[in-house]
Amino acid sequence: MRRGSFMDIPMLSRDDNLYPPSRRRKTPLHVFFKDLRLVFKLDELGSEIASIALPAALALTADPIASLVDTAFIGQIGPVELAAVGISIAVFNQVSRIAIFPLVSVTTSFVAEEDAACRSSTEEESESLEEAFPMNNEMEELIPRIEKTNSSFSAEKNPNMASFEFEKKCIPSASSAMVIGGVLGLLQTIFLTCAANPLLNFMGINPDSPMLTPARQYLMLRSLGAPAVLLSLAMQGVFRGLKDTKTPLYATVAGDVTNIILDPIFMYIFRLGVSGAAIAHVISQYLISLILLWRLMKHVDVLPPSIKDLPFNRFLKNGFLLLARVIAATFCVTLAASMAAHRGPIPMAAFQICLQIWLATSLLADGLAVAGQAILASAFARRDHEKAMATLSRVLQLGVVLGLFLAAVLGIGLQFASRLFTNDVHVVQLMRIGIPFVAITQPINALAFVFDGINFGASDFAYSAYSMVLVAIVSIPCLFLLSSSHGFVGIWIALTIYMSLRALAGFGRVGAAKGPWLFLRT
What we know:
Low-confidence stretches: 1-25, 138-166
Radius of gyration: 26 Å
Number of strands: 0
Largest sheet: none
Number of helices: 16
Distance between the termini: 42 Å
Oligomer: single chain
Shape: globular
Strand content: under 5%
């Protein structure tokens, strides 16, 4: 028999044979198409995403929908009042997002990490006890009978057992978020009350403008609700980190329904006009905050043993990074509103309606971002890269599907529904110019929001901040150039460029497998 020579040995490919299939080197882009056929499957991961994303999306869109209802009521008064309120809302949202968005983002990640660590510690303790005291068959049969007997005792008869069963979680990040949110809310109220006139002047409302009085009234009254807004958003970040998005949904719906009921009462029965709309909104925000606080106190030990236990340093370090990010992100949208305001009440009124629709529908994708952030933060805390990769693929694929669906619905539906917001013919004409941009950008917006949540879940706050600042540096000149050359249409073209750059920034980080995504290369 002939001896085998070296040439008879088949060449082993580094990628094909030296590594098992689970360890072969792949291009990071494969994660965008991984398990594509499972995109709608309600398996364990799909159910977890749905249970977090659907309530979160509804809660996130509830407030913009309430703002749309406000817009519809105010639009019946006149285009001047509609434009004035639109500018005030833009100012309030800009300041609120600067104050609270970094806090909510880091709170969700930190709470998810601490909760995952607590669960891991509890599981390890349970496993060690089982190893130390193994149960035989007689003990396993006895435990259900004991549990059944104990369940007959009420919490009143056995308070110790009830306190053991419903022991509150100790999550320092939750207490830190609430303290910071309350302080920031008070500072925002003081700032908006004292600087209302300069801010409105910056937004394009001159001292002799008919929009000044209603805009100032709405902004100053709305600012009284800032503490409730920021505190409730901080608590929503805590609930998201605990993967509970149903409680914020119920609270937000209760508050927004109250707002919708009170709007016509204050505006038309009490004849308060735009001031009535602001008062109704403030009442609804305090109601939301009280409901969330009541529910949170049942599950989390809100008061820590000591102030030293609160991780303020970690919040401040990452919060300042996201502060730079959110200033860059919201400044582009606020600048676009300012440019529309400089063109007069009619363009501003049309822009306000289109912008509210644009934001309300885009925030549906933010529900997916919340789910991705919470699940990824837990997966990274447990070093479960397989779960992280599967979650990344699924939420990105669902984001594309959602964006395409919203584009089709808005492109068709808004052509017929534009008169629901105003009866002014000129405003409706400009709205129909902006509607195609609102529809076309939905897939881009969806991906941009989902990428934000993904990077926050990986605690990649530095990249999120620096990339957004770079996006703003490119987008702001585009806004000036296009608005001056193409007017109302140019503003929407510039906003489309802005959202496209945001999506590309997220795609580049994950697609290149840099930073926390380095594991995608294997």
